């Protein structure tokens, strides 16, 4: 059963941050940060701050044993303060050269999801399965939960990914690939939508 993550200990949050960080080290989003070994430290820091933002915004959901996690934010109720805090913490703890490469990428792919993003929608901020538990249907459980929330709210559910295999997985789960944009660094952003 998937539910919102609330009122957890610092240790539990740190465990979630490690799970998400490890899952994202290989993500193409961090392509410009070097090999997986070279970028591991910074990806772990970045994702720890991102997970903290998603948790503080009340948008973090997990299955019972925290092996599957998803961030889901209703654009009509987005929380700006946790975002500002996250950005400030990133600027003070991650090398500016690393952040600059992400900002340049974001600038180039920024309009990739504008077809749906200008209207109220549900953002899948991240989908993560603990590396040791992948291949057990947990991603399907997370996406099904998100689709059910989208149906209940009667708004589209948006996924953005920089990994072709994840785009294929979301398509398999009933999402439409409606756009893709390739940045100068060769990384492609895939934008997908689910709507009832």
State the helix count: 7
Shape: globular
Helix content: 40-55%
Strand content: 15-25%
Order of helices and strands: EHHEEHHHEHEHEE
> Uncertain runs with pLDDT below 50, 5 residues or more?
none
The biggest beta sheet reads: 7 strands, mixed
Which architecture per CATH?
3-Layer(aba) Sandwich
How is the CATH topology named? Aminopeptidase
Q: Please tell me how large the radius of gyration is.
A: 16 Å
Strand order across the biggest sheet? 1-2-3-4-5-7-6
Number of domains: 1
Distance between the termini: 22 Å
Average pLDDT works out at: 94
Give a structural overview:
- This protein has 196 residues and is of the alpha+beta class.
- It has a single domain, classed as Gcn5-related N-acetyltransferase (GNAT) (Aminopeptidase).
- The chain contains 7 helices and 7 strands.
- It has helices at 10-24, 36-56, 80-93, 96-109, 114-117, 138-153, 164-172, and strands spanning 3-4, 60-62, 68-74, 122-129, 157-161, 176-182, 188-194.
- It has a 7-stranded mixed β-sheet with strand order 1-2-3-4-5-7-6, with helices on both faces.
- A hairpin with a 5-residue loop joins strand 2 (60-62) and strand 3.
- Helix 2 (36-56) packs antiparallel against helix 3.
- The radius of gyration is 16 Å and the shape is globular.
- The two termini are 22 Å apart.
- The model has no long low-confidence stretch (mean pLDDT 94).
